Amino acid sequence: MKVESVLTNKDVPDNIRDAFNECIQPDEQLLFVVVGDLSLKAKYETTAIGVTGSGFMVYDPERGEPLKKYAHSDVSDAKVKRMYGNARLRVNFKDGTHEDVFRFTYSVATLADMAAAFIENIAAGKTVEEEYDVVAATYEKLMNVCPKCGRTLLHPGAECINCQSKGKIAKKLLKYVKPESKTLIFCLFLSVLTTAVALAPPYMTGRLVDKVLPDKNRGALGWIVLALFGTYIFQHLIGALRGYLLRCSGDRIVLSLRNDVYKKAQSLPLRFYDKTSTGSVINRISGDTNTLQAFMLRISQEVVVQLFLGVGIIIIMLILNWRLTLLSIIPVPLVVVGAKIFGRKILPFYRRIWRRWAGVVSVLTDTIPNIRVTKSFAGEERTVNKFKSYNSEWLNVDMSAARIATVFPHIVSFFVTCGSLLIWSIGGNWVISGTGGLTTGLLVSFLSYASMFYGPVNFFAYLNDSYQQALSAAEKVFDILDAEDEPDEAKGNCPPITGKIEFRNVNFSFDRTKKVLSDVNVTIEPGEIVGIVGTTGSGKSTLVNLLMRFYDNYEGEILVDGVNIKNIDLQYYRSQIGFVQQDPMMFSDTVYNNIAYGKPDAHVEEVIHAAEVANAHEFIARQPDGYDTVLGERGVGLSGGERQRVSIARAVLKNPSLLIFDEATAAVDSETEHLIQEAIERLISGRTTLMIAHRLSTLRKANRIIVVDQGRIIENDTPEALMELKGKYYKLVQIQTMADQLARSKKEENFD
Amino acid sequence: MARFYVDGNMAKFVRKDICLVDMELYTGEIVEDLEPRRLFPVSGRMKYITLLDSEGKEHAIIRDVETLSPESREVIVDCLREYYLIPKITGLLERTEKYGVLKWTVKTDRGIQQLRIRNRNADIKQLYDGRILVRDSNDNRYEIIDYRKMDRDSLKLLSADI
User: Fold this and answer.
1) d(CA A211, CA B26)
2) Does residue A449 fall inside a structural domain?
3) What pLDDT band is residue A613 in, cutting at 50, 70 and 90?
4) Interface test with A, best of B138, B143, B162 (most A CBs within 10 A)
5) Residue among A44, A81, A162 whose CB faces B99 most closely
6) Does B1 touch chain A (CB under 8 A)?
7) CA end-to-end span of chain A, whole Å?
């Protein structure tokens, strides 16, 4: 098999292809090639590793001898060492030597992992056929990217969520304008009407100057003044009605846009929030949607009106005097060209302003909810200074933008004024000399029309500014609206869940820099109570996060009752899991609604029963407002232990098939721990339960313990067996027993 | 438990492997196979270098690499150079934006590289001293040491994103 037909992540350059082909023996078959991007000396170079059934070749142009070949049979093991921004494939040979054979950035890290596993497994005696399937599957998954934007697709052939909706912004926004089309068309009609009426006064003024005043015709003067009065009344009445209708439509547009963005924000995966501050998301929902609303109204109304006005005036001006009209439009090309330059200059400023403002908002969302921490650490001044500095940053950028944004309109106005000076000087001369058929009244009318004409010109010049502002806001809003939802391809598939959990070859990293879970393989039978222990950062909570489907981008499979959890309806799946966290989140609502959060249609007695099971009923009953007690933000008004019991009641009410406790008693005193423990024991009977715990005493009901260390499961057995094993669990128990004894004796000393 | 800080001539470092050193203390005690890592990879540069064993357990912290003997300093600097790959962007040669993804062609101290940036707001971080940290779609890191010192063309292209 030649290189052309093998699996590869990129086109193999000719020189590498030739080198590989020369090196391959006639009976050898090249299976796959990983094209790398870094030399062993850490320079950007095209390198490659080609793997056959009997060995592998590495091409690195920075080496004295670019091509090197190794036999699988000489290999003892092959591992990828992840470093910072790069990684190496190190091969240990059976003769005790080792060599770093391939260096690469994270772009090819997954393929290099796969190559290392292939080499190691073949060296260990596994068959090429068996291992090749894994290789092919990895390539298929990795190469499954959108050709336009390079994002990974959900499955082969899937439409790219990112690109499918990338049309013109106006087209996307049209969706929100459409429901208001009737009102907007009516408003447009009113606008055209008022605009048409607005064209009459200059003509009437001209008639006044030319005819009525020189003829001293008081009757005609009265009629003209009355007519002017009528047009003004008409303009303002219709204007008020139009303004009211537009405001209502605009509010409805922004409401629907805001609802959509909020709804989308709810369905985004956690990894979106890992990278995006909540402050910036709030800013997009609150501020940017308003900017877009203003822009949509401007586009749907003012553009048409101003265009109509501009064309109408030009026609009237041409009828009045075509030569003066030509003089009036001299500044227009300058305005148009200027607007284009202005647009190019101002957009980066709007983006910068947005980023600085998002920074200001993120300080707010960080510090206001954490006001207790700030106060308890006397950090008010620091917080204020931080806010000031972010605010100043915003001010600096905004002022730079303001310079451009204010200077440009004045330049436009200057040209416009120069235009009117031209009309005065040339038109005035014609009136004085009596040439060109121009009268004083006509000149006055013409000047009025000319000044009106510069209104639409100004508008279109400014339009670019608001367009750029809207573009900047739209980018942020569509960042959310176009982001990938949590993958839920199995909507509607709701198999009954009894509680068997299997992790098969699960590997996971939040980004590609560090593996958080490696080769996790574990099976938990229905009804088992499993304790998960390990030091902080060992990967216990990540294990649970994957089981909860908070992150789906892991390698391997997680099955519940034999079904891959990715193939179960996401909402249904999560509804089958009771998740009790260390720091339970409460909503600013009544205690009752907080308990009934997972089952809003629960009967009152069900809620009370759940509170009883969770040992929460008594303290709730003692509250003056009982179950109607309204909690402050994040559950202010309840102690940590009380909040925990409310969250357990929430889980009880849900009646889940699987239960997960993530350090549920870590932050409470012994007495409360006892109450919570009692509640947990009532809840877990007969349900598959995973309990992450630092305090090993909370695991006394566990019939199995899993010890996680550096992302790997290192021990997995009954507590008794693990104590006999005298491994990590044994050590943890010893340390905690000693600590408990010490704490007890200190307590006794104090009592004595 | 007090941290063990290494200053000046308190310890000698010998290169063991590409990213591994042996630490010989002035007491004669030798700790083998330690991996030097930056505690502050973004801001600290050559200060506060932790020394971890294969289990990830810390044995000492070098306060300031500059205070070590020249031989030891070279060993630690070489190890860190191998471990950390944060190419320094010296010029922005091309910038395109399509389907919401930014594509930069950059000149770095490691050669020319093309990178994709998915989210301008999250992946380009501008610090106050003119430094800019960039993360590409593959989680590789890049650094612009001081964007104000870049050439005019690069600055013009960069100004759209910062």
Assistant:
1) 110
2) yes
3) confident
4) B138
5) A162
6) no
7) 84
Given a cut of 80, whether residue A232 has pLDDT beyond it is yes
Distance CA A620, CA A479 (A): 43
Whether A136 and A226 share a structural domain = no
Signed CA dihedral, A471, A472, A473, A479: sign only: positive
pLDDT in tens, B30-75: 999 999 998 888 766 788 899 999 888 889 999 999 999 999 999 9
**Residue A211: inside a domain:** yes
Q: Is residue A340 over pLDDT 80?
A: no
CB of A712 within 8 Å of a chain B CB? The answer is no
The neighbouring-strand residues paired with A33 are A8, A50
Task: Tell me, yes or no, whether A310 and A416 share the same domain.
Answer: yes
> Are A189 and A136 found together in one domain?
no
Per the listing, tokens 């590989």 go with A20
Residue numbers of the domain that contains A137: 3-142
Domain-by-domain residue ranges, chain B?
A: 5-83, 89-158
Q: Which of A122, A142, A162 is the last residue of a domain?
A: A142
Q: What is the mean pLDDT of chain A?
A: 82
> Domain with A236 in it: what CATH number?
1.20.1560.10
Query: Cβ–Cβ of A44/B98 closer than 8 Å?
Result: no
| Phi, psi for A293 (deg, rounded to 5) | -60, -45
Tell me the count of A-B CB pairs closer than 8 A.
93
Q: Which helix (H) or strand (E) holds A639?
A: none
The rounded distance, in Å, linking the Cα atoms of B140 and A638 is 45
* pLDDT tier, A156 (very low <50, low <70, confident <90, very high otherwise): low
Q: Classify residue A588 by its DSSP letter.
A: S
Residue A669, in any domain of the structure:
no
8 A C-beta contact, residue A175 and residue A181: no
Q: Is A625 on the interface with B (CB under 8 A)?
A: no
How many independent structural domains does chain A possess?
A: 2
Nearest alpha carbon to residue A280 among A366, A398, A395: A366
Asked if A286 and A408 sit in the same domain, the reply is: yes
Binary contact (A84, B18; C-beta < 8 A): no
**How far apart are alpha carbons A93 and A111 in whole angstroms?**
21
Chain A residues touching B159 at Cβ < 8 A: 348
Say if residue A751's pLDDT is above 60.
Answer: no
Statement to judge: residues A184 and A244 lie in one domain: yes
- Put simply, whether the predicted model's pTM sits higher than 0.90 gets the answer no
pLDDT at A634: 62
Q: Is the pLDDT of residue A446 over 90?
A: no
Nearest to B138 among A84, A512, A710 (CB): A512
pLDDT of residue A1: 44
Q: What is the CATH number of the domain that holds A55?
A: 2.30.29.30
| Interface contact B85-A86, CB threshold 8 A | yes
Residue B145: Cβ-neighbour burial (10 angstroms; 0-12, 13-18, 19+):
middle
Pairing mode, if any, of strands B47-52 and B58-64?
antiparallel
Query: Cβ contact (<8 Å) for A85 and B99?
Result: no
Is the predicted pLDDT of residue A165 greater than 60, yes or no?
A: no
A63 touches chain B (CB under 8 A): no
Tell me if residue A713 falls in helix, strand or coil. Answer: strand
Q: Which of A100, A122, A142 is the last residue of a domain?
A: A142
B125 to chain A, any CB pair closer than 8 A? The answer is no
Cross-strand bridge partners of residue A32: A7, A51
Residue B122 to residue A276, Cβ atoms within 8 A: yes
Nearest to B110 among A43, A275, A276 (CB): A43
Residue A134 within any structural domain of the chain: yes
Whole-angstrom distance, CA of residue B161 vs CA of residue A483: 20
More confident residue, A390 or A486: A390
Residue B112: closest CA among A403, A37, A677, A326: A37
The neighbouring-strand residues paired with A564 are A559
Length of chain B counted residue by residue: 162
